[in-house]
Specification:
Strand 6 and strand 7 form a beta hairpin. Helix 1 crosses helix 2. This protein is globular. Helices cover 30% and strands 28% of the residues. The protein has a five-stranded antiparallel β-sheet, with helices on one face. The chain has a five-stranded antiparallel β-sheet with strand order 2-3-4-5-8, with helices on one face. Strands 10-11 form a two-stranded antiparallel sheet. By secondary structure, the protein is α+β, with helices and mostly antiparallel strands. It contains five helices and twelve strands.
Length: 250
């Protein structure tokens, strides 16, 4: 199993990359993957995605220690809810303790719990983003008005969670990617130079399906570099991808 990732600032942004990601070993059997995209209209939008990353890292370590100590693991479905519930409550607590405004904790979240033994995953999308599993693309789009987790921190978690419909179960995983919506924003940045042509759909396929350089740690960085140098394309919005590829021979 190899996990590739990239997070790069878009050409329309000048100060901060508002995206973030995390990959963490939840237990011996389960892997946590997540990508976040801070709200551009929020205050210090990079802060929210960074904060969520730090909290997910903390939660993952604590669950890993607990599973090791108790010699017991839950299912991917149960872990997804546990992680999200802890994130919900800890984010709400920090918002109150730091006297943060609502627009300071707004970020999308694509969160996946991967069962590396069964090659299956449970995924939830809060806001918008793109999932690709074995070449099949599933886009979650909310008309540029994501229903951020930060909007609901004053609510009862169980009631909020029961209303979440953007969930996906995938099995027989060979290649799984979580991506922020920056993947849809590749555009020409230099009209003075002639480049090779490539369609918008092929950009997505190139980054999330094509397995060129899959054995190299900088796989996605090389692909983004190729899109820039060979095809004259850069993302105008921040782009973050986490891509997990299983070795088919194992």
């Amino acid at each position: 199993m190899k996990i590739h990732h990239i997070s790069t600032i878009g050409t329309f942004h000048t100060n901060h990359n508002e995206d973030h990601f995390i990959t963490a070993k939840l237990t011996a059997r389960y892997q946590l993957l997540a990508v976040m995209d801070g709200c551009s209209m929020g205050t210090e939008s990079h802060f929210a995605s960074t904060l969520v990353k730090k909290l997910l890292r903390k939660i993952s370590k604590e669950l890993n220690f607990k599973a090791f100590a108790e010699r017991r693991e839950e299912t991917a479905t149960v872990y997804l809810k546990i992680v999200l519930e802890q994130l919900f409550h800890q984010l709400a607590r920090l918002k109150n303790e730091l006297l943060l405004e609502r627009d300071e904790v707004l970020t999308t979240l694509l969160l996946g719990i991967v069962d590396v033994q069964e090659k299956a995953a449970e995924i939830i999308v809060i806001g918008d983003g793109l999932i690709c599993c074995n070449g099949k693309l599933t886009e979650y789009e909310q008309d540029n008005q994501p229903d951020y987790l930060g909007y609901h921190l004053h609510e009862d978690f169980k009631e909020w969670f029961e209303q979440q419909t953007q969930q996906l179960s995938v099995q027989n995983i060979k290649d799984l990617s979580l991506s922020t919506d920056g993947i849809f924003t590749f555009s020409p940045f230099n009209n003075e130079t002639t480049y090779d042509n490539i369609g918008d759909d092929k950009v997505t396929n190139y980054l999330l399906i094509d397995q060129q350089w899959m054995d190299q740690e900088n796989m996605l960085h090389k692909k983004v570099h190729t899109l820039e140098k060979q095809y004259g394309l850069k993302p105008t919005d921040d782009l973050t991808i986490v891509r997990l590829i299983f070795d088919e021979h194992k």
